[in-house]
């Protein structure tokens, strides 16, 4: 189900080892990726150069060089494009096989070659395309600092557009070629969007801010301050500022960006991109202590969806649950319950009573009933969610473990036997370790719960887990959270 794919509820239980208290996050709409690094279909390679040293048969390294002029034939353009794509796939294949050294040698050889081209006066779209593909390769290796250096070499994407504009104005039969370059330069900018978002996920907020500011500056110069693309870039930059800790600045920039998008009518108001931006801004308002303003945005999302899709369309459930989350944050669990029951009713009517997507509002409702001290009713919904997940995904899947974790917390307060609760916690832990890794934050949270019960039951087994937990806590204390 499309709803299940993006709206899986995760119950955060970090405050107490046996409670459902913790942070509640808003759901994002089912969303296609708008900006991400892609396999850029770029320019050319006409000559090759062997690297020094021994080469394996499947690691034939070739450096990419661009043509010296733009009057090449379409066959030359296709060859250039084909070989650059081949270069990218070669790096990608090496990384997939674990041949990091081979990939680095290939990237370094091409980097050296393109630097020589630039030093020789070739500083155009072709070299920018080669640098862009090299940057994608270094992203795959994980060397993000060098990626930033490569982006600095690209200098300002405006230069690329100006070169394209000159060629279009120069015309005389080269319009299609210039437009092809224009489209590819857009892909480079979109790659920068993806890189900025990646920096945010990696905790490199300052790098993300620099990258996304470059895009905003470029779009503003190309299209004007009131273009919808500028609004989208402003919202992306706001996310980086929030990650950096500049909350008030992030809220204001995000608010202005959304207003630019609305005023420009660049994107329809029911578009998933606009919905995502509204939800992100609502989250920022909540963090800034301006929850009422955030709730108004969530209501706007719901009203827009109902206007275009009808009052009982499944797409409205995301917004019903987000509104419920907003009310839960304000401790208005009665209103949250009403909205969650409405969302569950719509999903059951549209998808049936056995579809896994209905467990999203079902588990949300279970958590709310828990807060309302209606544990028996909460347990019934959690048990049903666990049953549906087990039937659909098996009892070793992460989504099954998430539902089971919710059920455990409810049953612990009801008074289930400590040994039974501990056995279920260990079951969840084994799934998390397999799916998320032995040092994930989810594993740390689960270890806390297990240690709590081991101490309660007087089990010596706790000593080993306490040492492991202490090491992991030290690791995450050093990690900066945004």
From TrEMBL:
UniProt GO BP: chloroplast organization
Pfam assignment, any one: TPR_12
Q: Which GO terms describe its cellular component?
A: chloroplast
- Note the InterPro entries from the entry: TPR-like_helical_dom_sf (IPR011990), TPR_rpt (IPR019734)
Q: Which UniProt keywords apply?
A: Repeat, TPR repeat
By its UniProt entry, which SUPFAM superfamilies does this protein fall under? Answer: TPR-like
Record protein name field: Nephrocystin-3
**What is the organism field in this record?**
Coptis chinensis
């Amino acid at each position: 189900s499309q709803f299940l794919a993006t709206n899986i509820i995760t119950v955060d239980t970090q405050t107490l080892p046996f409670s459902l208290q913790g942070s509640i996050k808003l759901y994002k709409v089912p969303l296609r990726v708008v900006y991400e690094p892609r396999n850029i279909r770029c320019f050319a390679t006409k000559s090759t150069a062997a690297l020094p040293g021994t080469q394996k048969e499947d690691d034939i390294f070739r450096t990419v060089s661009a043509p010296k002029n733009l009057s090449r034939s379409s066959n030359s353009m296709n060859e250039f494009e084909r070989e650059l794509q081949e270069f990218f796939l070669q790096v990608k294949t090496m990384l997939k096989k674990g041949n990091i050294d081979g990939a680095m040698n290939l990237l370094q050889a091409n980097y050296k070659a393109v630097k020589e081209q630039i030093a020789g006066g070739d500083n155009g779209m072709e070299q920018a395309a080669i640098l862009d593909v090299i940057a994608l390769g270094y992203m795959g290796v994980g060397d993000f600092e060098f990626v930033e250096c490569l982006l600095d070499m690209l200098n300002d994407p405006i230069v690329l557009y100006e070169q394209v504009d000159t060629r279009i104005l120069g015309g005389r039969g080269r319009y299609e070629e210039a437009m092809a370059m224009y489209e590819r330069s857009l892909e480079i900018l979109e790659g920068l969007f993806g890189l900025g978002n990646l920096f945010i996920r990696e905790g490199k907020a300052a790098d993300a801010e620099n990258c996304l500011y470059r895009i905003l500056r470029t779009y503003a110069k190309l299209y004007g301050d009131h273009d919808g693309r500028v609004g989208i870039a402003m919202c992306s930059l706001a996310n980086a500022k929030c990650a950096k800790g500049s909350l008030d600045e992030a809220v204001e920039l995000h608010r202005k960006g959304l207003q630019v998008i609305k005023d420009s009518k660049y994107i329809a108001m029911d578009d998933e991109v606009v919905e995502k931006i509204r939800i992100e801004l609502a989250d920022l308002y909540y963090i800034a202590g301006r929850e009422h303003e955030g709730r108004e945005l969530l209501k706007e999302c719901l009203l827009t969806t109902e206007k275009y899709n009808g009052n009982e369309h499944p797409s409205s459930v995301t917004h019903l649950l987000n509104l419920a989350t907003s009310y839960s944050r304000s401790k208005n669990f009665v209103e949250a319950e009403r909205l969650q029951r409405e969302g569950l009713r719509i999903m059951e009517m549209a998808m049936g009573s056995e579809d896994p997507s209905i467990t999203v509002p079902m588990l949300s409702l279970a958590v709310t009933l828990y807060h309302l001290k209606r544990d028996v009713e909460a347990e019934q919904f959690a048990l049903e969610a666990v049953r549906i997940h087990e039937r659909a995904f098996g009892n070793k899947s992460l989504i099954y473990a998430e539902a089971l974790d919710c059920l455990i917390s409810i049953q612990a307060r009801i008074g289930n036997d400590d040994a039974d609760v501990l056995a279920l916690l260990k079951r969840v832990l084994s799934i998390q370790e397999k799916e998320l890794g032995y040092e994930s934050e989810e594993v740390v949270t689960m270890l806390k719960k297990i240690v709590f019960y081991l101490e309660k039951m007087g089990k010596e087994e706790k000593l080993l887990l306490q040492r492991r937990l202490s090491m992991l806590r030290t690791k995450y204390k050093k990690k900066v959270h945004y």
